[in-house]
Amino acid sequence: MAKVETSKTSLLVNKKTSTWTQMKKMKLLYIMLLFPAVMLFIFNYLPMYGVIISFKNFSPGLGIWESPWNNFDHFKRLFTDFMFIRALKNTIIISLLKILISFPAPIIFALLLNEIRNQKFLKVTQSISYLPHFMSWVILSAMIIEVFSPQRGVINYLITMFGGDPINFLSSKVFFVPVILITDIWKEIGYGAIIYIASIASIDPALYEAAEMDGAGRFKKMIHVTLPSIMPMVIIMFILRLGGILNAGFDQILNLYNPLVYEVADIIDTYVYRSGLEQFQFDYATAVGLFKNVIGIIFILGANAIIRRKSEHGIW
């Protein structure tokens, strides 16, 4: 027994020594990692201290610790506040629509790009599709407002040219959400396809050769070889997307919506923005944000657990 314990101890010591040796060899990489880690801690973890005010009747004059506790009043208020319930409903609807419609778009786009054989055309297509991602929603919103303008927009010009009446898309409860979905796809489809293109590039060419020997054409190879091969990556991205189920696109909606479409467009993030920064209800807005983040964690943990039971794929 003593020999076994001695051997286990020596193995642990050797393992620790080898790990430390490897870290010393890669010290420059660890130093490079240190800076983003410090920034992450300062800007993402230290501000979590402020979450405390969601449990208090916060007064800037008293400060965080001196403000009185509120016995969870803000969380009780959530489910009796009509504005919050409406924002929650709109957030879930828009998020689910984005998952159903926007999430598959980069996957389909990556599969189609993989079938392009002309390299010049492929590079031009990729460059054009990537460009909107690197532009802020402030700039893109100005372009979208002009395109959908009822007086001077291209879309309404085509509608009137064919005998129709101009439509104010961004002030219509019927058309606002479809505009949100279409513009979201347009902005992110190219950049979102990059990770799937990288996964496709790592597929063993022998699989395609075997499929060709079995008589498979380009479409069948896409369906039976390419798509199953990138499915682990699709699953991981889907789990991460579910974690943001209550993120319906704050920047996009804030720059495009107006009071006429609050009924269908007001989401949790815009509600928090108005409550916190416009109405100065910092404690209540923090409680709403905390509720949203807890729901996101529950979704991501639940989705990962379910998928791990059904398959070998998952985040952890």
Short description:
The protein has helices at 2-25, 27-45, 63-66, 73-78, 82-102, 104-114, 119-130, 137-147, 154-161, 176-192, 194-201, 205-213, 218-243, 250-256, 262-265, 268-278, 282-310. With 316 residues, it is mainly alpha-helical.
Give a structural overview.
- It is a single chain.
- Helix 7 (119-130) crosses helix 10 and helix 8 (137-147) crosses helix 14 (250-256).
- Helices cover 72% and strands 0% of the residues.
- The protein has helices at residues 2-25, 27-45, 63-66, 73-78, 82-102, 104-114, 119-130, 137-147, 154-161, 176-192, 194-201, 205-213, 218-243, 250-256, 262-265, 268-278, 282-310.
- The chain has 17 helices and no strands.
- The two termini are 36 Å apart.
- The radius of gyration is 26 Å and the shape is globular.
- The chain folds into two domains: 1-55, no CATH class; 73-310, MetI-like (MetI-like fold, Orthogonal Bundle), CATH 1.10.3720.10.
- It is mainly α and 316 residues long.
